[in-house]
TrEMBL record:
Topology within the bilayer: Multi-pass membrane protein
PROSITE patterns: MFS (PS50850)
Protein's name in the database: AmpG family muropeptide MFS transporter
The keyword Phosphoprotein is annotated on this UniProt entry: no
UniProt GO molecular function: transmembrane transporter activity
Keyword annotations from UniProtKB, A to Z: Membrane, Transmembrane, Transmembrane helix
Length: 445
């Protein structure tokens, strides 16, 4: 009876390392929380700017500026690996901090005076949303690498990224509707009230047994956290250097950079292309994009991780890139069909679906290549490189539009996934893991 009670207690506890269902719920909700502000800043606001006749250069500049904090996540990650309230967990205190900052900054963007004619103020407010979003993202990713077993990572990444796209979809369509009906300055603070719910997730769930729920509650540092916590900046950067100079890390960095550039190009292009070239309203664009991201999120949750589990990361990334290149070539050479809304809807749906599945496979690859001792720093380095590519891709749209036609731009964009696909072929997960085990063993001898 005692053994049975212990098993039941373990099954229903609220510790992430002990409860697989709780892990899936926790990280899915945290990623949905990341998607909510992105749905507004990266999609709803650009569409709103486009319908109000802002130029492609102005819209691209806004997206490039709000993408900057995501590029500097690598400066945040070592801070998290080095400092924390260890009795509350290695990354959980930082998740709470990032989530709280997101709520405050999300409210503040609604108080920008005359935002349509004050793009500098809008950019600044968007910058701070991205800044705290980057904090929450780094901490969540670091915690995921540490507490999710390797055999669950692909499935977890499917759920996480699927949840994020659902968060983007929901806030995009709701945010657009509220902006159009209530006005920008009223709609955004109104949405922040609902967004505040997500801070309960990191507050209620702990990483490991015995840890404190909050700084003033009972608890202590877990033995695992003691054993892996680094107390030296030199050690952090020395371990990071040893991992990132491994061949697979280098090829991963190049591949994920060009994939990020692809995302930045497409995400920035779509609202400008559909609204200013095809004559859609921002409501039509938001509804179509939200539907496609919702569908992609659902498929990602239930199929993205499963496909990676079954076929492997490299094979699936290659397939997704071949399909993406083909899709961009087809849309670029079929301008005669652009007047059919169903055709463009199909393009957006397939592009979003492939981007979601690629993100799941890349995230799973990044986790598999990460050294747990410096998990936040190494994984964040990959994500920072990806976001640098995304910010560059976003800024590139305005430059391309001044020199090329839309048909030519679609064909030029296909270069990014081609380069990324080539780089991924050189990754060797088994050899990389053996290298990590070798220098990890030497450091303990």
């Amino acid at each position: 009876m005692k053994i049975r009670n212990t098993q039941v207690k373990k099954q229903y506890n609220l510790f992430l390392t002990e409860n697989p269902i709780l892990r899936y719920i926790n990280f899915s909700l945290l990623y949905m929380a990341q998607g909510a502000p992105e749905g507004i800043t990266f999609y709803a606001i650009p569409a709103w700017l486009a319908i109000n006749n802002k130029t492609p250069m102005e819209i691209a500049s806004f997206l490039a500026v709000i993408g900057i904090p995501w590029s500097f996540k690598i400066l945040i990650a070592p801070l998290m690996d080095r400092f924390t309230i260890l009795s509350m967990g290695r990354k959980r205190p930082w998740v709470i901090f990032g989530q709280f900052g997101l709520i405050i900054s999300f409210i503040s963007i609604g108080f920008v005076p005359d935002p349509l004619n004050n793009l500098d103020g809008l950019m600044l407010a968007g910058f701070f949303i991205s800044f705290f979003g980057a904090f929450q993202d780094v901490a969540t990713d670091g915690m995921a690498v540490e507490v999710i077993p390797e055999n669950e990572q692909a499935r977890a990444n499917g759920l996480m990224w699927g949840s994020k796209t659902i968060g983007v979809s929901a806030t995009l369509v709701i945010g657009t509707a509220l902006i159009n009906s209530l006005g920008f300055s009223t709609a955004i603070p109104f949405m922040s009230v609902a967004f505040a719910f997500f801070i309960l997730v990191p507050i209620l769930f702990r990483e490991r047994p015995g840890e404190k729920l909050m700084p003033w509650t009972k608890g202590k540092v877990s033995e695992y956290s003691k054993s892996v916590q680094l107390k030296s900046w030199i050690k952090i950067f020395k371990d990071l250097f040893k991992v990132i100079i491994l061949p697979s890390s280098i090829f991963m960095a190049i591949g994920i950079c060009f994939n990020g550039m692809l995302n930045g190009l497409v995400d920035t292009l779509l609202p400008i292309y559909t609204i200013q070239e095809l004559g859609w309203s921002n409501t039509s664009y938001s509804e179509i994009y939200s539907i496609t991201t919702l569908i992609s999120g659902i498929f990602g949750m239930f199929a993205g991780g499963a496909l990676v589990d079954f076929f492997g990361e490299k094979k699936m990334i290659t397939i997704y890139f071949i399909l993406t290149i083909s899709l961009l070539a087809i849309i670029g050479m079929s301008s005669a069909l652009w007047g059919y809304n169903q055709y463009i809807f199909g393009f957006i749906l397939l592009a979003t679906l492939l981007a979601t599945f690629l993100s799941i496979a890349f995230f799973s690859s990044g986790m598999k290549l990460s050294y747990k001792t410096i998990a936040a720093t190494q994984f964040t380095l990959y994500m920072a490189i990806s976001n640098s590519g995304r910010a560059y891709g976003a800024g590139l749209v305005g430059i391309l539009k001044e020199s090329f036609s839309w048909e030519q731009i679609f064909l030029l964009i296909a270069i990014a996934p081609l380069i990324s696909m080539i780089m991924i072929q050189f990754i060797n997960f088994i050899k990389h893991k053996q290298s990590i085990q070798n220098f990890s063993h030497r450091s303990t001898v």
